[in-house]
Structures are given as structure tokens and as C-alpha cells.
Specification:
single chain; 706 residues; alpha+beta; three-stranded antiparallel β-sheet; 25 helices; 19 strands
Length: 706
């Protein structure tokens, strides 16, 4: 059938533009009808079975065929009805041009926006039907939806596994449905010149609708019958638990509801080059494997009984708590649970946290997922579950991404640790990074824990999206020298310790294009990066000394130190273990040390006379507790901390020797160490391990001779 000329289409006062040819119209009508129906079906299903998966596979296959058909034939035939073949060829070329950006490793966040904008501009310029502005606008919208949301975005969803964000799936779903509606309203079939052609057209449309439908049903039924023997007649029910009720011997979650975090790294989901790798080397994954923790929990069980360890395991080894097992590092049967630490599934199953959350009090939900009514231990079923998950991510995201995950209370559940013991009418807090935040500048500015501790650092070595930045699942803070805490775990020094030091020195980097994205969406992560992470050390120093001095003079040196975290007290974490002390030194022009404040001695113990921050804990016998035996605390003394944005002044009198050579250099340094030497000796043996010292902030001034 000859194509309808531009003049003929302009004379048509309806919104319909007729599709030429015997094949193009019926083909698009039939296949788009099937795609619309199967897409709606998949969209409405929350949990896939084999029949749903079959529909999805056929839907994707036909989608790829339609995309290629439109790119290399359909578009220029559609454009020909109102413009020319050349316009359709250019439109297809633009789509292919922007698809090509992927192969040059361009961030898809950038070229997606460029593709949408350029295709819209081209259509606004090209689709102009005389005397029909409404038809022009409607047709331009339809072609944009067809070209961008169906062809461009649809092909990406089929082949680019990096597109995990809901936005791209919703863009395709609702864009495709709108395009299908526009298709039936805007494009029609020309009148058949004979009864035979009319019948042929109806048969072709019906066949193109029914054949894939029949094939999908047949494939789904075959798979269902094939694995019928592996189906459980009584599938597990969804489970919801409250960790506050955890007690020894009470199993909260059946084993079939739990899976190892490595399962999250299969294929190219959260694979070994991205989030899984970050978590694997993090303090969260290793929370129950550090030598100090294992030593403490064994001592705790020895003195207070095995069941008492649930106080620790609710946060350090929560899977043991869910299984109702007291934490026992000497029990090999617990090694697999311990190796998971704070697992992917555990964190992402948290659905609610009370406002006064502490000691791991959270509510978790373990919903049923794809193929839960089959034996998941069977390797083929495990493989199918992975395929189902990749095929339809929306139910998975609904199950494991909850609003509470973006709140600071989510973190407070474990980062606020309260003892049942009270001293002077006050509850002892072993560690509390949340309460100080509630009175801080960052709280007033709407900055959450996740904004600072989950920054968009560059993902390493990901071939699917090498430019993509993601929330850093190392959750970097002040856990320095993690590699010493878990000897035998390879890669910790490179993948965790290095970035921890960078964080302490204010050297965190976020890719530039992500900064533009964060600015566009007005994210708190941008404010956190600019104000609290970039070139910001946790503590800031302002050193004041005289500009000139003479031999044998005594000069006054003032060090003003400010808590620069804007969120936490300093030091943060266990105050009896972390060490933060100020050292001031003076050297003359020949490098001779003429003054130094107390610091570490030859055995790496911090002097009691050092200018330091922290706390002193004592037991019932008046003996100082250096090894964090929190259950033995009877008295707290000399608590010295800096509240968020608080400053303190320390003054030092420095006597300059008569024979000193000028100029004199004064250096003030705040040093940080994760564990004191008493704790290191108790855990590893005397002198075996010494934790490194990180100069957290430093200021230098020079004094010249009068």
C-alpha cells in the first residue's frame, strides 16, 4: 500500500496519522497490545512465579525486537507520513548515538539527561503539522516516549545491569503505558482496499497478540511442572520480630529466611566491585570478629553467664541473637554467623526503630520473596531466584528499602549503648553518638548520620558503571587500624584503614559530576561533604604565640581546640578505650627539641600527665578499668570531652634556653589512637601489638629573635 503523503495527512482534521503498509501497522498494533498487557501484569505482581517470569522473558524479547524494528525501519516510516524518511533516519541516529555513550564509559546519569533533552528538541523542531498544533504536540510527545522511554531506556534495562534505581524502571513502565495509549489514539490503519486485506490484517493482529501469550503460558507451565517436586506444600510465612525480646533459646527467624551476604553479590547486583566489597571490608561486617570483642565477650560470659552476651550480640553478631544463641567465639558452629557480622539482610530488614532506640532495639521484617515456596537449598532453585530478582527488582526494593533507613534513629539503635547500672542516679552510657547529634549544628541543618558516613565515594573497579558513585558501605568513622583488630583478614589495610585515615585528615573525595547531581536534588550529602568532610578534620587547632622572643625568655603558648565534627563529642566511641591527646613541641633552628608536653612513654603507654580527652572508669575496689569491663563499672571520673562545636583553651609556658638558635618552631598536634596500650596488652599479650597514632590536626608557628 502506498504511503500516505504529507498533504493528505495535513487535510485529516482528526488526531489520527495513518500507518502505511500491510505489515507495519498490524505488527505494531499486535505486539504493542501484547507488550501493554504483559507489562501491566508484571507491574501488578509483587512476587514472581514461573508463569510471571515467562511473561517477562517474552516481554523483554519482543521489546528488543520492537526496539530494533523501530530503529532500523519503523521510525522513518512513521516520520514519512508527515515529514520525510530523512527525519526518521536522523531520529534513529540520535538514539543510537546516545546509546553509544555507554561504550565510552560515560556516566549514564549524564547521557540519559542529554538524550532526553536532544530528542525533545529535535522533535519540537521537526514535528510541525500545518494547522494542527495539538496534533503536532501530541505526536511529538508520542515519538519522544517511543524513542526515549521504550527504545533507549528499554534497551538499557535489558543490557545494562547498573540501572538499579527505581527511576529507570518507573520511567520505562509509565512511559511505555503512556506511549501505548498515545499509539492507539494517534496512529491508525488506512482503510483496507479489499475484504481479503481486512481479514488478513485482523488475523495478523490477533496472531501477534495471541502467539506470544500462548507461548508464555506454555513455558511457565512447563517450568512449574518441572520443579513441582521441589515445591513445599507449606511455604514459610513472613516473619516480623522485635530484637528487644531477644533471649537465649528463643529462635526468632527460621534459617530458611536468612541468607549469606555473598548472595547479594551474585552477578552484577551489589557485586564484588561495589557495595558488597565495601561492606566486606567494613567494621560492620567484622563487628563480631575483632580480637578485643571476642576477648571481652568471653570474659563477660565467664563472669556473668553465657546468656548475658545477648546484650553484646544484638549489635555485634545479630544473627546469633536472632537464632537465640549466646555468643561464644570458641564455638565453631557459630563461625558462619559471626563471619556475617552485621549482614546486608539484617540491616535492610529493619523496618522500624523507636525514638529512644538503644542496645539494638529494632523491629525487623522478613517477607516472602520469589520462589519461597520452593526448596531454596537446591542449586537450580537458587539460580532461578537470582534470575527472578534481576528480572523484577521492584518487589525486592520494596522489601529491603524502608523509610527508616534514611533516618539517624536507624543508626542510634546500635550506636547508643545504655547499661542497666546507674551511678549517682544517672544511667551509664557506654557509647552514644546519637544524643550529642540531637543538639548539634548538623541536626539543625538537617544533616543525618548517612549524609556524612555514607558519602557518595567512587565505586571501585566496576566494569558496568566505572563512573558511578554510591553510598559508601564502609561507613567510615574513626575505627582506625581495623586490620590489627582482625588479624588474618586480607585487604582490610588497603580497603578500610586507608580511607579511615583519609577521613580523619579531611581527605574524602566525591566525584565532581556527583556533586552536581547532589546539588540538583538538594541532598544533605552535599552539605555534609562541603561543610563537614571536605578538608575538615574532626578537631581544629588555633595556635597563638608571640611573633618575637629573646634568649632565656619564657613565652606563653595558647592552643584553642574546637570540635569540628559538628555532630559528635570528641573523642567519639568508647571513651575509656580511644585516646586523644594534645602534644606541643618547640624546636630551635638546629632541630634541637627544647620543649615537649607529656605523651607516650617508651612502652607506648600514654602519660597520666598528658593533656588528653577521655574518661576514667573504676570498679568496686577502686581499681581503674583499662580493658572495657563495662559490667564492673562502679565509678566514673575525670570525664573530659568536647561537645559538638565546643572549644577549649590550653596554655603552655615555654622557657627558651639561653643558647637556643632562632627561629623557634612551635608545633601543636592532636594525636588519636583507637585503643590504649593497656587494652592492647590485655587482648594480644604485653608488647605484642601497638596501635598506630594518627596526627588528627596540626598547627605550626615560628618565633623569630627580637
Amino acid at each position: 500500500m502506498p504511503a500516505v503523503s504529507p498533504d493528505q495527512s495535513v487535510e485529516n482534521h482528526s488526531l489520527t496519522i495513518q500507518l502505511p503498509g500491510l505489515l507495519l501497522g498490524p505488527l505494531l498494533y499486535g505486539l504493542i497490545a501484547f507488550q501493554s498487557l504483559s507489562g501491566l501484569w508484571i507491574m501488578l505482581r509483587k512476587k514472581l512465579d514461573f508463569l510471571d517470569y515467562s511473561f517477562l522473558i517474552v516481554h523483554r524479547s519482543i521489546g528488543i525486537f520492537l526496539a530494533l524494528y523501530l530503529l532500523f525501519y519503523g521510525f522513518f516510516r512513521i516520520f514519512r507520513t508527515f515529514r520525510s524518511n530523512r527525519a526518521g533516519i536522523v531520529f534513529s541516529g540520535l538514539i543510537l548515538f546516545f546509546i553509544g555513550f555507554y561504550f565510552f564509559q560515560t556516566p549514564y546519569q549524564i547521557y540519559y539527561f542529554l538524550a532526553a533533552a536532544f530528542l525533545a528538541l529535535y522533535l519540537a523542531k521537526t514535528v510541525r503539522i500545518e494547522k494542527h498544533p495539538v496534533k503536532s504536540a501530541a505526536l511529538a510527545l508520542f515519538l519522544w516516549l517511543l524513542g526515549f522511554t521504550i527504545v533507549f531506556n528499554g534497551l538499557h534495562l535489558c543490557f545494562v545491569n547498573a540501572l538499579r534505581n527505581d527511576f529507570y524502571h518507573l520511567l520505562h513502565r509509565y512511559g511505555a503505558l503512556t506511549a501505548a495509549l498515545c499509539f492507539y489514539l494517534l496512529l491508525g490503519l488506512p482503510p483496507a482496499v479489499s475484504q481479503a486485506r481486512r481479514i488478513m490484517r485482523i488475523v495478523l493482529i490477533a496472531g501477534l497478540l495471541l502467539l506470544p501469550l500462548i507461548y508464555s503460558v506454555k513455558m511457565g507451565l512447563n517450568l512449574t511442572n518441572r520443579y513441582a517436586v521441589l515445591r513445599d506444600p507449606t511455604p514459610p510465612k513472613p516473619v516480623q520480630v522485635d530484637m528487644a525480646e531477644a533471649q537465649a533459646g528463643k529462635i526468632f527467624v527460621p534459617p530458611e529466611h536468612l541468607w549469606p551476604s555473598a548472595q547479594c553479590s551474585t552477578g552484577s547486583c551489589h557485586n564484588h566491585h561495589t557495595i558488597y566489597e565495601q561492606w566486606y571490608y567494613s567494621a560492620h561486617r567484622l563487628a563480631g570478629k575483632t580480637e578485643p570483642y571476642k576477648k571481652l565477650v568471653k570474659q563477660y560470659a565467664k563472669e556473668k553467664g553465657p546468656d548475658a552476651t545477648l546484650f553484646c550480640s544484638r549489635c555485634h553478631t545479630p544473627l546469633l541473637a536472632l537464632a537465640g544463641m549466646p555468643d561464644n567465639p570458641d564455638n565453631p558452629a557459630q563461625d558462619a554467623w559471626r563471619d556475617e557480622g552485621i549482614s546486608c539482610q539484617y540491616c535492610h530488614s529493619i523496618t522500624a526503630v523507636p525514638a529512644d532506640a538503644d542496645n539494638g532495639r529494632v523491629t525487623l521484617s522478613f517477607p516472602n520473596t520469589h520462589l519461597d515456596d520452593y526448596d531454596s537449598r537446591h542449586p537450580e532453585i537458587a539460580g532461578w531466584r537470582d534470575r527472578f530478582l534481576n528480572a523484577n527488582l521492584m518487589p525486592h526494593r520494596d522489601a529491603f528499602k524502608h523509610p527508616v533507613h534514611s533516618t539517624s534513629e536507624y543508626c542510634a539503635a546500635c550506636h547508643r549503648v545504655k547499661m542497666s547500672l546507674q551511678i549517682d542516679g544517672k544511667t551509664i552510657l557506654l557509647g552514644d553518638t546519637h544524643t550529642p547529634w540531637l543538639t548539634s549544628q548538623s541536626y539543625r541543618e538537617g544533616i543525618t548520620c548517612q549524609d556524612c558516613h555514607l558519602p557518595l565515594t567512587k565505586v571501585t573497579k566496576n566494569p558496568d558503571h566505572p563512573w558511578h558513585a554510591a553510598g559508601d558501605h564502609r561507613f567510615v568513622g574513626t575505627c582506625q587500624a581495623l586490620s590489627l583488630l582482625v588479624p588474618g583478614e586480607e585487604g582490610i589495610d588497603k580497603y578500610y584503614d586507608e580511607i579511615t585515615v583519609q577521613r580523619l585528615l579531611g581527605d574524602i573525595e566525591i566525584p565532581t559530576y556527583e556533586l552536581y547531581y547532589l546539588a540538583f536534588v538538594s541532598s544533605g550529602k552535599l552539605r555534609a561533604y562541603q561543610h563537614y568532610l571536605k578538608n575538615q578534620t574532626p578537631i581544629a587547632i588555633e595556635l597563638t604565640v608571640p611573633e618575637k622572643a629573646g634568649p632565656a625568655a619564657t613565652i606563653s603558648c595558647l592552643v584553642r581546640s574546637r570540635n569540628n565534627t559538628h555532630a559528635h563529642v570528641l573523642p567519639s566511641g568508647p571513651l575509656d578505650l580511644n585516646e586523644l591527646w594534645l602534644e606541643v613541641t618547640a624546636t630551635d633552628a638546629r632541630g634541637r627539641l627544647i620543649y615537649s608536653t607529656p605523651g607516650l612513654d617508651e612502652n607506648h603507654y600514654l602519660s597520666e600527665n598528658a593533656t588528653s580527652l577521655g574518661v576514667e572508669l573504676y570498679d568496686d575496689d577502686g581499681q581503674r578499668i583499662f580493658n572495657h569491663r563495662f559490667w564492673a563499672i562502679a565509678r566514673v571520673a575525670n570525664k573530659r570531652v568536647l561537645a559538638p562545636d565546643e572549644f577549649r583553651d590550653d596554655r603552655f609556658e615555654i622557657a627558651i634556653p639561653e643558647n637556643a638558635f632562632f627561629p623557634i618552631q612551635i608545633i601543636a598536634t592532636w594525636n588519636y589512637r583507637r585503643y590504649n596500650q593497656h587494652m592492647a596488652d590485655w587482648v594480644y599479650g604485653p608488647g605484642v601489638v601497638t596501635f598506630p597514632v594518627t596526627p588528627m590536626a596540626e598547627e605550626k608557628k615560628t618565633i623569630v629573635s627580637e
